[in-house]
Amino acid sequence: MSEKVRWGILATGGIAERFTTDVLTLDGAEVVAVASRTEASAKAFADRFGIPRAYGDWAGLFADEDVDVVYVATPHHAHREAAGRALEAGKAVLCEKAFTLNAREAEELVTSARDRGLFLMEAMWMYCNPLVRRLVELVRGGVIGEIRSVQADFGLAGPFTADHRLRDPAVGGGALLDLGVYPVSFAQLLLGEPDTVQAHALLSPEGVDLNTGMLLGWDTGASALLSCSLVADTPLTASVTGTLGRIELPRGFFFPERFTLYRDGRDPEEFVNEDDAHSLRHEAAEVMRCLRAGTTESPLVPLDGSLAVMRTLDAVRDRIGVRYPQEAVVTPV
User: Fold this and answer.
1) Is 43 an annotated catalytic residue?
2) Are the C-beta atoms of residues 212 and 333 closer than 8 Å to each other?
3) Radius of gyration (Cα) for the chain, nearest Å?
4) Chain segment 117-175, per-residue pLDDT in tens
5) Which of 4, 43, 91, 97 is catalytic?
6) 10 Å Cβ neighbour count for 115?
């Protein structure tokens, strides 16, 4: 891998625009191609960002010999096909979260990447955020003792009409995959895969979850109380409490600008993000670091962790009765 990393962008929606804007701020990053299902959309995107090549189909991007890594920004239901085809073409892949529709699809992608010796990472930007990394260091260093509880929520007030993608089962709609993936990923970043999963939800007439509460449990005695919603503007906060103290993250916990450490007998300590908390460039920089080092998996966003999160999301959907039309069966966890 040369010092320059050449990106191909797959899809042209809002998250692709944001990612491209941020990746172009990185030294050694170059966006050389973009693909969409229509040539007009790809060309408009390319013109906006000064990208030299625009493809009106995925195949052109996958066949482009100048592309080192493909950023997959399609809706959830297309992640398996898009990332899978990119891997088959020999490309490294950064795939948006939720990683796939379900754990089976995620396992297929991971197997494909590992069999081919290719880099694959879920775009869980929260894990790459400098302040989240500092929080993990503190927790693993024992500053709050043994974890006893984690709380996190992500809810939007909406309303989202029946024709909105977030209410469309065919594209993996619902609160869980779009929003719930953040609280679940936060809890599992700190505690690993849960031993028990309980959940309750309000479902839409279309059959996707509008408001979901989750209680995850670990054999250590730790628990996580998590929620996601498309019908309520929740605080968007998180906390982790241990036997010796707790850490609280304010609104926007998944891109924190600060958090506060509370310990018995000590004044609260505030930790501030000295970098751009809102930027997606941290995850892009991690991809580029791995590619230059010749590694196929990121230690910050390990594939086994992404698989574990997908298994938990599957278990939640099993408990609340949500199944997407592409799925024959979702195996209960």
Assistant:
1) no
2) no
3) 20
4) 999 999 999 999 999 999 999 999 999 999 999 999 999 998 999 999 999 999 999 99
5) 97
6) 9
